[in-house]
Amino acid sequence: MKNHIKKAAIFLVATLIIYGFLLIIINGKIINNYQIQIINYLGINIILALSLNLIIGFTGQLALGHAGFMSIGAYTAAVCTVNFHLPFFLALLCAGMVSAIFGFLIGLPTLRLKGDYLAITTLGFGQIIQVVITNIDYLGGARGFVGIPPKTDFTWVFFSVLITFVVIYNIVHSSRGRAMLSIREDEIASEAMGINTTKYKIEAFIVAAFFAGVAGGLFAHLYMFIDPTSFGFLKSVEIVTFVVLGGMGSLSGCILSTGVLTVLPEALRTFSDYRMVFYSILLIVIMIFRPQGLMGTKELSFKFIKKKIEGDKGAIT
To answer: Which of 12, 65, 190, 254 is the most buried (most CB within 10 A)?
Structure first.
């Protein structure tokens, strides 16, 4: 118990230090508004990647429609603030809950499927959501939803990322998380041991959909304009790439890969004609030489860094 309290205290102190440091940089105008927007967008992508990792990395289910839940959250939050004038916190909560409801409704019939069949079904769900939104005038249709207030700032994004990480971390390290991991390793054996695999897959789907909805709400109030094309198939693939590159089953690896793949295209913007070529080559090289991702299933920790350093020293001597 004391060890858990000590770890929680260290995590809390480290989190507050990081938050304070970044807040000083932002409020001190050390970085410009464009760079601040990139940081906020990075946080939103981290929420999306962490939530999808619960499905792909820890439960072992290939889902290709995560951008669909993001779009539901984005439009729900926008309607709540623009049409119903709800506080931003309630708008985000509604966005997450509506997305979670859709996650349950979609997950209940589809998560009995496996492998490619599940991937195709979730992909179809994402496309259906995009087409439906395009044909609803109340949501702006193909023109997009305008007039969204700029509610998203660094504090909202930072603590949303923190809550997402803490919730998913605790799920993974609970009995439910062990059941999800057993499904990933061998679903047939899990069923033979009496684990209700469909139940745990649906639970993972609901939690992931909730946080994807929150990320969508933050996205809508960051850019103040959303349209159906912002949540298409390519966005879903991008989120899957974050998870696969970081390591399926690694939260810290997921965060690292999301940071690299979000910032790198912006850093290469001066090479506008070739930046996507560099980006693609990087992905190919990493997948060839590190197919398990940056972290595999390991988590970044001080102990892990210490062992790595000691191993490097031993190799040198």
So the answer is: 254
